Amino acid sequence: MIEEHSSSLLKISKGYELLGSSLDKNLLAELQALASHFKNDALHTQNENRLLRIGIIGQIKRGKSSFLNSLLFNGQDVLPKAATPMTAALTKICYAQQPKALVEFYSKNEWGKVKNLADKAFTKQASYENALLEYQANKAISQKQGVFIPSPAKPVLSDEEKASIELLNMVKSSGLNVAQYLDRTISLDEVNNNDELVDKLNNYVGASGEFTAIVKSTELHLNIDSLRDIEVVDTPGMNDPIISRGRRTQEFIGQCDVVFVLSNSGQFLDQSDMSLLAQNIPNKGIEDIVLIGSLFDGALLDEYHKYPSIQQALPAITTKLNNQAKSNVDKVCNEFAAHQSTEDNNQSHLMSTLQNALPPIFISSRCYDLAIKPEQSLNEEELHTLNLLNGMFDDFSFNANTFAAVANFTKVLSKLDTVKAKKEQILADRFNNLLIGSKREVKQKLAQIADDVTYKRKNLLEGDVESLAKKQQEAVKRIESGTVKVNSVFEKYSIQAAKTLTRLLTDINQDAIQVKQVQSQSGSREESYTTSREVSDSSWYNPLSWGSTRTVTSTHYRTVNYTYASVHEAVSKLESFVVDTSKAIYDVSENAIQLGLFKQDIKASIKDMFDFTDDNFDPEMVLMPLNNAVERITIPAVSLDLDAHINTIRQQFSAEQVEGDDIAQLRTEQARVVALLLQDISVELKQCINQIVEKLAKEQSSFIPSLTKDLVASVEQLKQDLTHKEEVLKGYDDVLQKVNTDLATLSTNL
Which uninterrupted H or E stretch holds 425? Predict the structure, then answer.
């Protein structure tokens, strides 16, 4: 059956090779790849006695590894957190009586691309530094002469360039001879138990592992009963900056039977999540999706102050997050439906699948660990969370049961058991679902081919080079003359972003005033003191002792009032300030530009240049490249690492309380640490503002040229077509006829 359907899809794509001159090369290549992908995925579904493959997917930094450590390994760090998102590797996990691991390194070609990207980035940085030195050297002279010389623009690096630099620096630091490991897969099998394997594995995927930078994927075989009959794939993040690693992730996702989608509870299934899901899920025949809202403890800490007790906070916050999740999904579904073409039903299938998967299960891996671990075994990060959670309500402290309630893993385990129980049915349906999804994808690609050819055919039939060139020149002139209007949109949002972040810094400074204050408190305690007196020591039966005395001491107690300051309270205020500030900066920087509104404003500025009621004007000619340009815009988010400053307070004041002169010293130290925090925060915010402004400036400079380039390309295409008009028209007609036939065949068979 696989060969039959693979051949059918391959035959469809092969049929267009003979018509290649009439087709867009990229669309033809994408169509041809679909048949190959289907065959690979379909062969996997037909493996006898195969395991149920469960994929854990989501964006980077959504707690996927922590979730699996809690779910499968009782909180043990079997899957260590990567040093950074750049070093994360895809991991496949399955059962085996004898533990072992397979470690796959990058190929020579893949590592060569990493080096080339890093070298380009280093060159950009070196050029910038040289230009900066020259600018600084000439700045004073220029000012004296009254000449203004702009400072050189700091280079903007892509995510993959940043990742490549980081991987290369890690290799240089370790002194690793990379060449002897590339293109290899090694086995770690000389171990007696799971713990020994995990210890060994740390050198390959751990934060400071010698080989971590060059590992592409790992495969773990562990003696854990919960893994029987299933295979779990832990992905490094669907927005992986390393392209080759991201492709490997997509290959594995295509062969998953069930996916657990992790998204931040506080921003569940945001636009980025939905975009990534749309790229990876719709046509892979995956009908079983489990939605997991991770990091619920963070949402609880953000919202608890609105409620009088934990008993009211938990259900109320869960309900609120459920409503937000449904609203986010509905919003994206409605937006998609408004722009959906009649043939583009693959994404709508994803939307309905997601809606059926609601509501999500909100979980906290951290609280799960706190529920099962004794306090003396907690690390510093876990203790920090413990203190924050216990500080929420004055009359409430967490215990194992309440931590387990917040963790909510009972629901996850129940869902996992349900999935396991459905294994045979899921596997039985998998091939058919994959086939349906593949046909949907082929239909979508054929519709795109038809649209492209129809547009070219229309130009060839209805216009000549001179008239089309004239139209295109007019369009180019209109766009170029409207550059100021387009630029004003970019500048407007650039200014808004800078103002938003600057305003945030003012708010943070205001909050810091309260953090600086260390309140003194009055207390009382029982103190002991001694008194002494002389008493007779003579005895009537001993004349020699007559007249002698001895000193008698007595211990007494009194209540003493004193003034003190709590070191614990001072540190807690700092920690809360850091947590709240980091969250605020991340949220504001991520949303400094509302991309939806920005996109609408850009479109509006373009539309104002043209008469969309003119039948001779094709708006898609302009709007298609416009959409591509807008979708490329990403906004960097800021994260802060300020724990070192807080630790200075802990180290300097080991006692829980201080009195007397030490109170003034604590206040001085608290103010000093707050000042250092604000200094670092200010630097981070300024860097964030610069990144956003630079990114927008770069997009602004390339935006108009990209539009006009596409317009000119249409004229060149028409010139070529007109030299063999009848032949080209026949080719276009043949393509459209074949598309209609193939679409009808696929629709009939669906």
Answer: helix 423-462
3-state class of 503 per DSSP? helix
Q: What is the pLDDT of residues 39-64, one digit of tens each?
A: 666 666 666 567 888 888 877 667 78
SS (H, E, C) 661-688: HHHHHHHHHHHHHHHHHHHHHHHHHHHH
How many residues in the chain? Answer: 750
CA distances (Å), origin 390, targets 80, 308, 387, 396, 572: 27, 14, 5, 7, 11
Which residues in 295-415 belong to E strands, given as ranges? Answer: 361-362
**Cα gap 444→528, rounded to integer Å:** 87
Say what the alpha-carbon torsion angle 279, 282, 284, 290 is, to the nearest 10 degrees: 100
- Say how far apart CA 352 and CA 356 lie, in whole Å: 6
DSSP helix/strand/coil, 521: strand
Q: In 3D, which of 54, 38, 13 has the Cα closest to residue 419?
A: 54
C-alpha dihedral sign at 515, 516, 522, 527: positive
Tokens standing for 477?
């002139």
**Burial class of 26 by CB neighbour count within 10 A (0 to 12, 13 to 18, 19+):** exposed
| 106 burial level (CB within 10 Å; 0-12, 13-18, 19+) | buried
Angle between the N-to-C axes of helices 64-73 and 409-421, in degrees from 0 to 180, rounded to the nearest 10: 70
Report d(CA 214, CA 105) in Å as an integer: 6
pLDDT (tens digit, 9 = 90+) per residue, 402-461?
A: 999 999 999 988 888 888 888 877 777 777 777 777 777 788 788 888 888 887 787 777
Question: Which residues are within 8 A (CB) of 15 and not within 5 positions of it... i.e. 6 or more apart?
Answer: 738, 742
Instruction: Please state, in angstroms and as integers, the Cα–Cα distance from residue 214 to each residue in 79, 101, 237, following that order.
Output: 17, 16, 17
3-state helix, strand, coil split of the chain in percent (to 5) is: 65, 10, 25
The number of C-alpha atoms within 13 Å of 51 and in the hemisphere containing its C-beta is 16
Number of H helices, E strands in the chain: 24, 12
How many angstroms separate the CA atoms of 511 and 300, rounded? 21
Cβ distance 698 to 692 under 8 Å? no
Question: Of 582, 618, 228, whose CA–CA distance to 384 is shortest?
Answer: 582
Q: Which residues have C-beta within 8 Å of that of residue 631, sequence separation ≥ 6?
A: none
